[in-house]
Amino acid sequence: MYFWCVTCSISFAGPLSRLFLGNMAPLSRGEQDVMVMVKVRKESVPSQEIKDAFEEEALVLTTYDHPNVQSLLGVCVIGRPLCLVLEYSDRGDLNQFLRDCGCSHYIIRERPSSAIDPDSNKLSHLDQLCIAKQIAAGMEYLASRGYIHKQLCTKSCIISKNMIVKIANLGVSDAGPNTSYYHLNTIQKSKYPVRWLPLETIHNGIFDDNTDIWSYGIMLWEVYSYGMTPYYGMNNEEVISLVRDGDILPKPKECPREMYSLMQDCWSLVPHERPRFRYLHQKIGALFTGVAV
Fold first, then answer.
1. Which structural domain, as residue segments, surrounds residue 248?
2. Residues in domain Protein kinase (predicted)?
């Protein structure tokens, strides 16, 4: 199948790539174009080493099959830039969805007339649990495959009109195909978002499954804060100092005590003491169904 990019604003910009909306046109006449997301590497002229790592990583991504993980539809390795063609979601990224559902006292902004009504569309407690449960399920699957996301946040998830949430922004890593451990140099680690990272990653550039678990705790805070930026109003140095001193994000308004407790567990300064995604998925699933674990 052939595809081309549609003139559109960038959906997401990461340390190594940009994400655009696009159309994928089928070879057969009469079939409709398919809306897709196109992830483009930032290098204008990639080296052969980068191209080889990109192709190897893309092959790994084609093997992933989970209802809460974004599907890879195609790869472009001829010419430049290098691209991944990914499944599109009709409601966009989770962060914007949360902001549109949020109360005015959480997000101060001008709301367009076409936006979601904050009174009739405020998320219920079950809605928030459902979102958290689906992300935990997707991350449990990725962790079982040895994949480290490294940029887990609500902006790197997509949501559909029927409330299906999927882990997105996969691929195009510093270290090539998926592995259970990364160690990045100073320049590489400076590209990643400090507000979602634990101290061992910020200081030493170490990415492993414990990194994603810390980030998942921050993501839970985002879900219950309706997309608010963590440590809002602070610069990166202030955030690092706060985390180093053991201070944590406050409990969001109306966040259940059990969910805030899970966030705190994810933010343990001792990496191996953080809960596994399997446990988080089971625990949140039990809260969702009302069955204790």
1. 92-105+119-288
2. 13-284
- Which residue, chain included where needed, has tokens 């990166």? 236
Q: Is residue 211 domain-resident?
A: yes
Structure token pair of residue 185:
């140099």
Q: Is residue 155 part of a domain?
A: yes
Q: What is the mean pLDDT of residues 223-233?
A: 95
Tokens linked to 184: 């990045």
Confirm whether 112 is domain-assigned.
no
Residues 19, 68 share a domain: yes
pLDDT above 90 for 113: no
The most distant pair of C-alpha atoms in the chain lies apart, rounded to whole Å, by 62
Q: How many CB atoms lie within 10 A of CB 91?
A: 17
**Pair 52, 126 in one domain:** no
Q: Look at residue 104 in the predicted model and tell me its pLDDT.
A: 47
Beta-bridge partners for 36: 22, 87
Residue 114 inside a domain? The answer is no
Composition of the chain by helix, strand, coil, percent to 5: 35, 15, 45
Residue carrying the six token digits 């998925």: 281
Name the packing angle between helices 277-289 and 257-266 (round to 10°). Answer: 180
User: For the segment 238-258, what is each residue's pLDDT rounded down to a tens digit?
Assistant: 999 999 998 999 999 989 999
Taking residues 40-56, report their average pLDDT: 69
Structural domain count of the chain: 2
pLDDT at position 186 is 53
Give 268: exposed, middle or buried? Use CB within 10 Å, 0-12, 13-18, 19+.
middle
Pick from 88, 96, 98, 214: nearest CA to 150:
214
- In a shared domain, residues 273 and 129: yes
Give the pLDDT confidence of 148-207 residue by residue, as tens digits: 998 899 999 999 989 999 999 886 554 444 444 444 455 555 567 889 999 998 888 888
